[in-house]
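Quiz preparation item.
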């Protein structure tokens, strides 16, 4: 994680969603730098972009927050410099699975998808 991402995640660590302009003020980044890093963090699943309801005309506002399922990992990574967060999409992960063979799961006996994978623990 680079220093830009760390600064953004630190600003979002409070748990409350923040709009883009709030993050600009808190981080001190340029508009394009913040937009690029927020997009990358959202693609990794470390930040969620939520559309805010608007009352008038104009473009909708979006708020950013750290999702509850990764909040603990993010706070651990920010407090300990030796911890690194790695996120892989399922398409990359299934190539590492010992049961997957050509898009078919030998253990689940059906197509290899994240919701059917016996290797992924289901949240209760």
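Solution:
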């Amino acid at each position: 994680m680079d220093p830009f991402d760390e600064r953004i995640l630190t600003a979002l660590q409070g748990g409350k969603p923040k709009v883009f302009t709030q993050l600009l003020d808190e981080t001190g980044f340029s508009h394009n730098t913040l937009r690029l890093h927020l997009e990358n963090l959202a693609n990794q699943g470390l930040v969620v972009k939520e559309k805010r309801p608007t009352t008038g005309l104009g473009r909708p506002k979006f708020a950013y927050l750290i999702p509850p399922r990764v909040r603990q990992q993010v706070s651990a990574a920010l407090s300990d410099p030796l911890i690194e967060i790695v996120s892989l999409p399922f398409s990359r992960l299934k190539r590492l699975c010992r049961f997957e063979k050509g898009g078919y799961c030998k253990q689940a006996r059906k197509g290899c998808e994240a919701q059917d994978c016996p290797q992924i623990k289901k949240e209760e």
